[in-house]
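Morning. Coffee machine broken again, so started the prediction first thing and wrote up yesterday's gels while waiting. Chain of 505 residues, entered below exactly as on the submission form.
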Amino acid sequence: MKILDQQQIRNLDQKTIQSQGLSGIELMERAVAALMLRIDDEYIFTDKIVHVFAGSGNNGGDGIGIAAHLAEQGIEVRLYYCNYSAVSSENLAMRNTLPQYKYLQSSEIADIHSFPDINKKDIVIDAIMGNGINRTVGGIWQSLIEHINKSQAYIISVDIPSGLHPDRYLGGLSIHADRTLAIGCPRKSFFFLENQEVLGDWSIVDIGWDKESLDSIECNDTYLLPSFLKSIQISPRKKFAHKGNFGHALLINGSYGKMGAAILAARSCLRSGVGLLTCHVPRIGYPIMQTSVPEAMVSIDQHEFYFHSCIDTSPYSAIGVGSGIDHRSGVKEALSYLLKNCKKPMVLDADALNIIAGEKNWLSILPPQSILTPHPGEFRRLFGDWQNDEEKLQKQLDLSVKYQLYIVLKGAHTSISSPEGELFFNSTGNPGMATAGSGDTLTGILTAMLARGLTPLHACLLGVYVHGLAGDLAKQDWGETSLISSDIIEHLGKAYQIIERDTQE
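Came back before lunch.
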């Protein structure tokens, strides 16, 4: 799903009006109907007062329409006009055609003395500012937002919480919604860490934007949904296929005290359909790997405890390195040799990234199209700090383009940046996956994807999505608190079945 910016959304609204022969008020009424379907399905308003705060733009027009629909159902509604600017024509039309309902009372917010009393058992519909904000909120409207937030009432924001910019991080005050019903598509700011407490639970409401106009918009930001994954060709296995058809992966992982990382990466790699897997481990890891992962072959390093050997990577389809290799003397030299002599895209994680963070010039010698999988701490060590998530994401994007690398920045809505300047946000996964070894399982998955012949981009997109989906399936069985990384691996099979079904329908 495309993540459109502020201006693109305005343009798409107008193109939809023109191409479908609508008036602006008809498109607004369509949006109100779609929003009400969601609201009616999710909420019971018995014995509650609904406070609707409607601004002077089209977002406020949506709020007026919602107020009318609720009052028509016999729900007690208080509608407050928040005229922070000139009233739009569509908003004015909604006001002028608002029927007289027994259960609807309206008034204007003129100063702080006109702020209503809001009981914490009530519901607030926030339709004050919407998508069009360009600066932080001040004056009476800042005070109103503070008043609403302090009420402790359940808050539903229409399209976007008032005060929040759709594309940028402003840093000002905004409504703290419990639920956000975004019209048409998510906004880039939905993926900023700073806004996690502002958005609440958010979802997309389809209002029937013109498909041809939407498809024609050039957009570099994408939200990963199953429909998007259909563009990735995943051929079913043929009857006469053999293991040589699905690639030979090499994983260089593990060290004394960290062999668990090598086991997790190996198991997830095998569960992701690779034909053959060789695990290069220090000598102490040989019996551990042979016992724990009997399906994998084992290459033994010259060092008893750490990765030290110079490895010939030419026999392998893909290489993953870094999980648990440590960064002691000799490991750095072995990694340097690997990076300089490997000609294939690699997956680099954990200690490999920590070593590179101390040798920034190594970024320029990485095989082009390689995949880096840092968590925020590793990303900071590699590339420096940032002031906010907008800056962090731009830094991620710029570095992918500069070094021709794919960067998988792990976290909620894991972001994937490409050398072509594209940015993708994942839709699967949950906080239970914030556990030791989760990143090691992702390394194994991505390495298997590359070995099977997927492009680095498709490996990243499919690998991150299936990793999160397996985590979501594991959450159903174990909950978030008890989820461990092995649970993710155990649910990979079901995750792949779901993806194969969805992408082949």
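The mean pLDDT is 96. Going to sketch it on the whiteboard this afternoon.
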